[in-house]
């Protein structure tokens, strides 16, 4: 019983560490991609920008967009 | 050693369950699958609101190409009976449609936020009500009766305004329940607390749900008092101010709400804006319908197999119509159990 529990805990720990690492890699890739988009479209990033089609109200022009930044 | 293992498992489970979207606990969760898919003879870019009356279905297209509203026959193969709200800048045309409502005579109403007016259609034609200039960009409305309306207040001074048939403010009521953000302007706070509303004329209960958070407010309009504010501490809209505007930085919360005589139904998305910006959110809409009683007590959560933007609840027949904007045939139906254990 003890061995089974220890084995289960060990597997849980390995799984958690693996999942965390995958998440970090995804975030790093996403960050780089996002930075590029920001540089292309936001300039100094001082203005409110609205992106894509959605149901969120763009405060600048009232359009319905996916997100604002 | 065994104790350490037990503690590790408990800690892991606590961390895994600490997601904010789970901050309201429901005594029952039910998974639902689509029971019917309706076909239509009209293409809609972003169907967002659906209503029904007199054997007809009304659907509002948020990103209409030509008309914002379509009246469809209530049958498996829906046919277009009429279209309303031509898109344009001319007389009797709309620049925008935020919601649609049907009054006691089944007359169709809509709100154009860009032209700042309410429009009603009946057999005699079209009637327009220009809204008071004291109202800042109204983004939803509900009917108290056929000539009095509720609109959320975007000045940030109050939570809602009551409007008469001439578009003038009769009174302003209540306040935004967020007491923690004193450092932002009232208008920004009102933008962040942008909400959808629904009102039940029989019970006099008004529900307000936040689009950028997880707060649900219930008000007794007959007694002009707040009944409950659900999840105000953990679910308040997250945002930052830029150029005087509120920029959402938390989650897409609720997108539609319905108040029946005994329950509140709220459609919840739960997608974080970080994930949306990174392109990780693949479906537009939400797949959770949260049900509360009229005191604000959680009753049940339905988890749908589709992501929807709006719904029309039919408690009498135990079914609801929903709009799946991600599919070419967006009008779908679910069957559900309407009895709730209070």
In the predicted model, the low-confidence regions of chain A spanning at least 5 consecutive residues are 18-44
E-strand count of chain B: 29
Rounded to the nearest angstrom, the distance between the terminal CA atoms of chain A is 54 Å
Name of the CATH class of chain B? Mainly Beta
Describe it for me?
The complex is a heterodimer of chains A (69) and B (342). Chain A has 69 residues and is of the alpha+beta class. Chain A has one domain (2-68). Chain A is 59% helix and 19% strand. Chain A is built from one helix and two strands, in the order H-E-E. Chain A has one helix at 2-42; strands at residues 50-57, 64-68. A two-stranded antiparallel sheet of chain A has the order 1-2. In chain A, a hairpin with a 6-residue loop joins strand 1 and strand 2. Chain A is rod-shaped. Residues 18-44 of chain A have low confidence and may be disordered. Chain B has 342 residues and is mostly beta strands. Chain B has a single domain (19-335), classed as TolB, C-terminal domain (Neuraminidase), CATH 2.120.10. Helices cover 9% and strands 44% of the residues of chain B. Chain B has four helices and 29 strands. Chain B has helices at residues 2-16, 186-192, 232-235, 273-277; strands spanning 29-32, 36-37, 39-40, 47-53, 56-61, 67-73, 77-78, 80-86, 100-102, 108-112, 117-122, 125-130, 142-145, 148-152, 160-163, 169-173, 195-200, 205-210, 216-220, 225-230, 239-242, 245-248, 254-259, 263-268, 286-293, 298-308, 310-314, 319-323, 331-335. In chain B, the strands form eight sheets. In chain B, strands 1-26-25-24-23 form a five-stranded mixed β-sheet, with no helix packed on it. In chain B, a hairpin with a 5-residue loop joins strand 9 and strand 10. Chain B starts with a helix and ends in a 7-residue tail after the last strand. The model of chain B is unreliable at 10-21 (pLDDT under 50). Classes of the chains: A alpha+beta (69), B mainly beta (342).
């Amino acid at each position: 019983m003890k061995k089974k529990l220890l084995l289960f805990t060990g597997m849980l720990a390995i799984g958690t560490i693996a999942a965390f690492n995958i998440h970090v890699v995804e975030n790093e890739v996403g960050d780089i991609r996002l930075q590029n988009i920001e540089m292309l479209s936001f300039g100094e990033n001082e203005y409110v920008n609205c992106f894509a089609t959605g149901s969120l109200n763009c405060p600048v022009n009232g359009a319905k967009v996916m997100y604002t930044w | 050693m065994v104790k350490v293992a037990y503690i590790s498992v408990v800690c892991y489970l606590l961390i895994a369950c600490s997601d904010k979207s789970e901050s309201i606990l429901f005594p029952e969760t039910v998974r639902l699958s689509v029971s019917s898919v309706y076909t239509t003879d009209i293409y809609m870019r972003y169907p967002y609101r659906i209503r029904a009356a007199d054997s007809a279905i009304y659907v509002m297209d948020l990103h209409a190409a030509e008309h914002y509203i379509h009246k469809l026959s209530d049958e498996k193969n829906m046919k277009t009976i009429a279209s309303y709200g031509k898109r344009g800048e001319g007389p009797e045309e709309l620049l925008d449609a935020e919601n649609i409502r049907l009054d006691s005579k089944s007359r169709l109403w809509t709100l154009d936020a860009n032209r700042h007016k309410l429009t009603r259609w009946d057999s005699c034609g079209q009637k327009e009500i220009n809204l008071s200039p004291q109202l800042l960009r109204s983004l939803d409305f509900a009917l108290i009766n056929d000539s009095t309306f509720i609109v959320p207040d975007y000045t940030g001074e109050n939570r809602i305004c009551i409007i008469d048939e001439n578009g003038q403010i009769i009174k302003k009521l209540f306040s935004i329940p967020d007491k923690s953000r004193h450092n932002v302007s009232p208008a920004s706070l009102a933008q962040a607390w942008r909400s959808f509303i629904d009102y039940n004329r029989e019970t006099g209960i008004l529900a307000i749900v936040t689009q950028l958070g997880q707060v649900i407010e219930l008000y007794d309009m007959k007694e002009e008092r707040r009944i409950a504010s659900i999840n105000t501490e953990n679910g308040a809209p997250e945002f930052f101010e830029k150029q005087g505007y509120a920029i959402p930085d938390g989650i897409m919360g609720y997108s539609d709400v319905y108040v029946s005589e005994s329950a509140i139904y709220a459609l919840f998305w739960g997608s974080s804006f970080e994930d949306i910006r990174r392109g990780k959110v693949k479906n537009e809409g939400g797949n959770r319908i949260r049900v509360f009683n009229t005191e604000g007590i959680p009753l049940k959560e339905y988890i749908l197999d589709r992501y929807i933007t709006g719904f029309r609840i039919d408690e009498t027949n135990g079914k609801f119509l929903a709009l799946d904007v991600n599919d070419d045939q967006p009008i779908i139906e679910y069957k559900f159990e309407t009895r709730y254990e209070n």
